[in-house]
Amino acid sequence: MEDQDDLDTELVKLVYQATECNIQRFHNVIKIKDILVESVGYSQSFVEQRMAFFEFDAKERSVSTIVYLDVPLELEKLEVTIK
Q1: Distance CA 10, CA 4 (A)
Q2: What is the per-residue pLDDT across 31-56, written as a single tens digit (0 to 9) for each?
Q3: Which residue intervals of the chain are DSSP H helices?
């Protein structure tokens, strides 16, 4: 009889441990989901910043190209007016 009680007690303990493990697993899954959502937000922010950088860089290059191309023309105009 005592052996049966010990087995029942051990079975109850194992069921309780399994339930606790399932609860802990659920909480860990929620934490992982939150971390993934946060990382997607950071990734999206990073992509937006990189795109803004590329746009700024492209504008800066086009302005420098325009300025670089206009400088010789302005110099020629100056030389013509000086002579």
Answers
A1: 10
A2: 999 999 999 999 989 999 999 998 98
A3: 2-82
The DSSP output letter for 1 is: -
Amino acid at 11: L
Name residue, tokens 């010789």.
72
What is the amino acid identity at position 37?
A: V
Token couple for 30: 């929620």
Query: What is d(CA 32, CA 43) in angstroms, rounded to the nearest whole number?
Result: 16
Cα atoms in the Cβ-side hemisphere of radius 13 Å centred on 58: 6
Q: Which of 33, 4, 14, 76 is nearest to 41 (CA)?
A: 33
Q: What pLDDT band is residue 72 in, cutting at 50, 70 and 90? A: low
Q: Distance between CA 1 and CA 47 in Å, rounded? A: 68
